[in-house]
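Marked as duplicate of an earlier ticket. Keeping the data here for the record.
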Amino acid sequence: MKTILIIDDEEKLRSLLSRIIKSEGFEVFEAADCKSGLRKSELHDIDIVLCDVRLPDGSGVDLVQKIKEKKPLIEIILLTANGNIADGVQAIKNGAFDYLVKGDDNEKIIPLLHRAIEKVQLQKKIKELEIRVHEKFSFDSIIGHSKGITDAISLAKKVAATNTTVLLLGETGTGKEVFAQAIHQASCQSSKNFVALNCSTFSKDILESELFGHKQGAFTGAIKDKKGLIEEANGGTLFLDEIGEIPLELQAKLLRVIETNEYIKLGDTKTLRSNFRLIAATNKDLKKESEEQHFRSDLYFRLNVFQINLPPLRERVKDIEPLAKFFVKQFSEKTNKKLPTISKDFLDKLELYHWPGNIRELKNVIERSIILSENNALTTGTLPFELQYQPSNSGGTLSAFSMASIEKLHIQKVLNYTKGNKAEAARLMEIGIATLYRKMEEYKIQ
């Protein structure tokens, strides 16, 4: 319901305006002075305030500022019996939507109210989107309480308030872009663009064009001018993922941009400027790469101002369950399935696994399990083979380095390949069928 608050000490005028505005589908509240009007604007979800300039206990012009300080999304229209340019100018400066003279402009009130409500509704949608973006990309969205991840979050929060270059280190799938987004959202650049580029995705020439942009005719296929991501990131954050993959020829150009904020588009001679915050990420050891002359040492030292190491998932075992439950909820909603129950064995298998693909791999495993789940339950049967057939956590656990453990895993893989055909599995492994049955019994393979 669209809501409006009328503040005027003339009861008859309030009553008349109230009847007219209610007929337009508004819910109407009334107040006779500044004090009661301010209180009602705080108590109710008001969209628009229609307020007289001259009130018994103060000025409507001053009231605009007080209401806006507490409820910035409210739009305020001021009414006065006598047109006063100075009052009108000050009202607009204080944040009023418009200023009308009583009597002369009665026919303008309703169209003005509808324009004001359109602005209010647009502002509310923008605010909702901002809240969603914050929830999705803030530090609060990072799941985990293990020491490695909480230490990384603590460092990221401290550097976020600065404009310092950040280097995120970690294996593939550890959440480097999630951290980059969170740093951006907590920074003073959060209202500007967050521009991300995976440097391993493009060839040298295309990567150069993506970063710096180009002028029409700079190369074959350049049919019009193109903005580069460095230009798009002006005032905001540029996130370069897999920065260790940037060709050496481009590294010198990137170093100049970082140091001077100046760059030149491909095919151009004009120097341009872009003031952005750089966050870089890699799964490589850039120090070693620079020592082996695969990466410029001067660029490495310029990037390595503030380093944050993200731990692999295998070092965050206590975080696996909350992460899994988060992905279960996410994919249940995505596939329109009821939230399933999760068996203890299912979670145990997740915690036993070494996760070479880290959080990204866990996310994929959960999505697969949701699709395969039956009877609204996640069981070990919905897991991929390599997770299903792991040594259990019981007293009979086999060492990951023992020959027996390797033999058990090999038998499980071959049986999976033959879809449970034991005779075929024995043939492929070049052992007798009796030996296979004995091994299966010994290792408790179903």
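See parent ticket for discussion. The two ends are 62 Å apart (CA to CA).
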